[in-house]
Please model this.
Amino acid sequence: SAVISQKPSRDICQRGTSLTIQCQVDSQVTMMFWYRQQPGQSLTLIATANQGSEATYESGFVIDKFPISRPNLTFSTLTVSNMSPEDSSIYLCSVEPQGARAKRGYTFGSGTRLTVV
Amino acid sequence: EDQVTQSPEALRLQEGESSSLNCSYTVSGLRGLFWYRQDPGKGPEFLFTLYSAGEEKEKERLKATLTKKESFLHITAPKPEDSATYLCAVRSQGGKLIFGQGTELSVKP
Model:
C-alpha cells in the first residue's frame, strides 16, 4: 500500500494562530482526504483534495477555517486557521488506493496531534 | 444519507474469550466496507475490505463477514495484543469513507 509521511506529528499552539500540516505520499494518487478525530471520537471527514481543483468540503467545514492545497499528485497541506481550543484534535490525511493496491484499502498517515492553548 | 453504526462502544474480554463486533450500515450502493484497527496515538491500520453480501475475509484471529445490512468482525481466542479500537467504514459517493464510532476492545490476560 502507499506510504504516507505526515508532519508535524504533534504541536502545541497558541489560540489565534495557524498551523499547516503536510502530507507526502510515495506514489501519485488522484484523491487525498483530510480527517479530524476529536478526543475519544471517530474520524470525521473535513474535505477531499483533488489535484488541480478546489477542495470539496463536508458540511460544517469551510475553506476559510481549513484551507487546503494540492499542488501535485503526491502532496497536500491542510491549514487550521485562527485556532481555538475546540480545534484540539488529531488530524489525519488519507489516500484512496490506486490500481494494484486497490485491495489494500485506504492508507492513513500517522496523524498530527494538535493542542491549542 | 450514508450512515455507519458500530456496537458495542466498548468490549472487555478475557484472553481466549471469543466474541464479535458489529457494524450496521446504510448506504446507497455499497462500494466497499472497510475494517481498520487503531492503536492509541496512531493512524488507522487497514484490516479488510468486503464488497458483497456473503463475502468473508480472515487474518490470524480475525474474520470479517458481510450481509446486506451489517458486517461482523469475529475475534477468535483473542490475545492482549489485540487490544485496540476497531473502526468500520463504508465507501460513499466520491470515494470518501464514512466511519462508525468504533469499538474499543480490551483483552485482559
Notes: The mean pLDDT of chain B is 94. The interface with chain A takes residues 34, 36, 41-49, 87, 89, 94-102 of chain B (CB under 8 Å). The first strand of chain B starts at residue 3 and ends at 7. Chain B has no helices and eleven strands.
